[in-house]
Amino acid sequence: MKTNISIKQLKKSKLYSEELGINLKSRSDREIFKWFLVSILFGARISETNAKNTYKAFERYNLLEPEKILNAGWDFLVNPVMREGGYVRYDFKTSTKILQICEKLVKEYQSSLNKLHEEAKNSKDLEKRLSEFYGIGPTTLNIFLREMRPYWQKADPATLAIVKAFAEEKINLDLKKYNRKSLTFIRIESGLIRLRRAFKE
């Protein structure tokens, strides 16, 4: 079954970072770290709603920098932060993951994801460096880097095969026509991801 959504509508899709009030266009370490945190939360097998609510809990407690998260500690991340967000099933595991990621980011890159990007030799090296953080797998990597494409020269992850297939089958859209680094492409991609999720539900 095909969908009647138009390409024009897809081009107006809101990015996930925009939906959460994160300004990646600023290219600041703080905003990029916020998006990295969101990507980690979205990377687990929980609902999109719970992931967003958990990020909002981090926001409420002003835990949006690696040092602040480390100072808060594991117990505080588990409860109240994770519990308030509804991130219950993975609360212990994800709290440990986030703390380990923050420790490495502070120690090796002086809390700066921009520094990590600068030190990366190319796109593959960027992905390798990010995947060296505890618990960062292909899903989290793709979530994080796809919206960083216009702002980081070396951020250029491939579009997920399931998204390409959905575009071709349901919209009759060939994504190869678009520049993967453009904001237009990323809006289309975000719209397709939301649409695919709605179809599954």
Cα distance, first to last residue? 14 Å
**Largest beta sheet, briefly?**
none
Q: Identify the CATH homologous superfamily of the largest domain.
A: Hypothetical protein, domain 2
Low-pLDDT ranges: none
What is the CATH class name of the largest domain? Answer: Mainly Alpha
The residue fraction in helices comes out at: 55-70%
**From the 3D coordinates, which CATH architecture of the largest domain would you assign?**
Orthogonal Bundle
Tell me the number of helical segments per DSSP (H or I, 4 or more residues long).
Answer: 11
Give the count of structural domains: 2
- Return the structural class: mainly alpha
In words, what does this structure look like?
The chain is mainly α. The protein has 2 domains: 23-146, Endonuclease III, domain 1 (Orthogonal Bundle); 159-200, no CATH class. It has 11 helices and no strands. It has helices at residues 7-11, 16-19, 29-42, 48-60, 66-85, 91-109, 113-119, 123-131, 138-146, 161-171, 183-200. α4 crosses α5 (66-85). The two termini are 14 Å apart. The model has no long low-confidence stretch (mean pLDDT 94).
Give a quick summary of the entry.
By secondary structure, the protein is mainly α.
List the helices and strands and how they pair.
Layout: H1 7-11, H2 16-19, H3 29-42, H4 48-60, H5 66-85, H6 91-109, H7 113-119, H8 123-131, H9 138-146, H10 161-171, H11 183-200
Helix pairs in contact: 3-4, 3-9, 4-5, 5-6
Search tags:
201 residues; mainly alpha; Endonuclease III, domain 1; 2 domains; 64% helix
